[in-house]
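Researcher: Here's the sequence for the chain we discussed earlier.
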Amino acid sequence: MSDRSCKVYLVGAGPGEITYLTLRGQQLLAQAEVLIYDALVDSQLLQLVPSECLKLDVGKRGGKPSTPQAEINQLLVEHGWHQKRVVRLKSGDPLIFGRSSAEIQALTEAGCEVELVPGISSVLAAPLLAGIPLTDKALSSCFAVVSAHQPENLDWEALARMETLVFLMGGRKLEEIVRQLQGWGRSPSCPIAVIRDCGRQEQQVWSGTLADIVAQTAGVSLSPTVIVVGEVVRLRDAWGQEEQRSRGAEEEEDAGTRVHGDKGSRGAEEQKRKKTRGHGDAGTRGAAGHTDLRTEISRVGGNLEPPVLVSASSSLRVSPEGTLRTWAPGHLCTDTSAPASSSPLTPHSSLQLTGKTVLVTRSAKQSSNFTNLLQQQGATVIEMPAIEICPPSSWEELDSAIADLQDFHWLILTSANGVEYFCNRLIAKGLDARALAGVKIAVVGKKTAATLKKWGLQPDFIPSDFVADSLAEEFPEVIAAQKLLFPRVETGGREVLVQQLTAQGAEVVEVAAYQSGCPAQISPTALQALQQQAVDVITFASSKTVKNFSQLLEAALTSHSETNSLLKDVCIASIGPQTSHACRKCLGRCDIEAEEYTLEGLTQAVVQWVRNNSPNFEV
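Model: Thanks. This is the structure I predict for it:
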């Protein structure tokens, strides 16, 4: 048993998605032996902990069943004193309305050390991601953060005098918040914004006034929600419109997205908006020809735009004036007719997978690159490793081949795994790239070539198609009587390439460089997402991941019919022909296949599928 004393880490997960986790938080999750987490944390954070880590969900989502606080305290103390590395993961910042004081007190009284790791609070993140500054030189010199959980205990008279208010846990109390603020003298025209699902692809923002916000959000579940009240809310629309005024008429006509086809009606509406916002009044313009935002707001006195609901889940929404808008994480909601580079406030209207959930089945060590590609297009990604890469059962064959490298004419590498294991073994045997001085290298695929280049080696030949069959068909020289070294997966690989090269007269020496196997069980997070019909696309980058996925899913379910039911409405995406064949054999179908057999090609195939199957999708 370790001699470590009792220590528990209280870690803030930040708002919304995994991208807002701090580096310290990531380090601790990677070392966690016990993870006790709230329901609001991003499910992808659970994939950062070691596979053997005990994960305990204690709830803490508004309106949902939760583990009593006393039991959570007991869990922390018990696991801490069993010399476990315990991480208590809370959404946002652990000390802002997180009930951490009770946990800290219980741990301290039990003699446990506590380390606090800050997280980005939704108090700050939600307004920022909605384009609302909490302070402004002309509009707000301070702001108050308020828990709306028990509105009857608040000093509403004092709050009504504050310039800017930020309410947490106020979704179900919105009507009471509005009533109290107006009752204590706040104007019905006072701006207010309601931000739901801060920092997620599903983030939605309602902006209006105290007079109309309740009607706007009637019948909508507002949890989790951050509410911002004050004049600074007006800047959200003002910044977007200021950027719009700086564009030329020809840019407006060439906009990539359109709601109305009648240019005349659009022009009339634009002239109306310009008139309302003081366009043409040179007396209020600065040197650059633009109206100062604070001056404009004070003159207009009302909303710069009609209230608009912005949804990332469906990507596009139309305001009452017909202005097309989008939202993307980390970007303001502004008109989408501007070029992406025209302003730092311009959103990523090209996030074409926004609102879509993609299941990635690559190995845990290889999934990050593909996950990044999908997330850059706006997708929510669930990683479900359907394959495990490990060393071969014996190094004997590979070591023998490395010792005789001078006898080979060509080195054949068909995967990034083959490159990594071969090169690592070369180094382990006390050699380096100089040992390959007399050997030519042929690789299959851009990824394999890129991995090889990381080792300081350039391939001599890459076939035009990124499949092994093309390598034999397009080999650049006669290989009769030549000796080829082929480090490959120990079991389960295709024999076609070896057969084709041998048929051309080559002597192919196959050696086991690595092994691939099936994980012991399906990821609980992935299984839950499939059972809840929350997955839109499942991606496969090899035949073996298809076979293993099918095996894992059937082992977790009671019948083959249940498997078919779970996958009925899910798009099955393949990286290439052999993987597609495995999909049809194991899963009954393959919906899309990448034109270019790379992860980039697979990403684009998924994007194209979304375009083709989303009636409201526009580019």
